[in-house]
Amino acid sequence: MIMRIITADQAAELDQKAMHDHGISGIELMGSAGQAIADEAREMVAEIHDPKIIIICGKGNNGGDGFAAAACLDGFNVYIYSLIEAKQIVGDAAHFHENCIQKSIDIYYAVDPPEDLSCDLIIDAEWGERVQAFVVSEFQISNFNFRNPLKGKISDFKIPKEFIQVPSIPRNELGKIEYPQLIELQQ
Questions:
Q1: Which of 42, 91, 100, 126 could form a disulfide with 58 if both were Cys (CB 3.0 to 4.6 A apart)?
Q2: What pLDDT is stored for residue 1 in this prediction?
Q3: Within a domain: residue 112?
C-alpha cells in the first residue's frame, strides 16, 4: 500500500536538517534508504527461487536510492535500467552507481525497460511516485496497449507508467473514489 506521510519538499528539508544540524552525510542517508528498500525487496521475493529484480533509476536522489538498493542486494539477480547516461549520474548517486559497477551489476543506460520485461520484482527509483491508471476491463490488459495510443497526444510525464486491471473502482456512498481501497487492490 502506498502511504504519503510527507511531501517531496518536506523530505528534502528533512534531509537538509539531518545533514546540516546532525552531521549525517548524504551518502549515509542514501545508503540507509537503499538498505531499507533492499530489506523490503528481500522480504517480497523470499518465497521465489532465484528471483530476478529490476531497478529503474531516474536522476538525482531517487535514482541514487535505487543504485544504493542494488548495491545492498548481494546474491540476487539484479538488473538496473538507468533512464539517464552514466555521465549524468552525479552527487551521492554517483557513489552508489560506482558501487554497482564494482559489484558487476548489469546496468543499461538511457533506455526504458522493455514493455515485456520478465522479472519477479520491479523497484521504481525514478520519481519516487509514479502515475498509474486503474482499468476495469473483462479483457486482459497490457501497458503496451494503453501507452502507445497516448504518446504524442499528452505529455510523456502524464502518461501512466503502469495500467493496473481491477474488478471495479471502489466508491463511497456519494460516488467518490475510495483511493485507499483502490490502492489496496493493486497488492
A1: 126
A2: 45
A3: yes
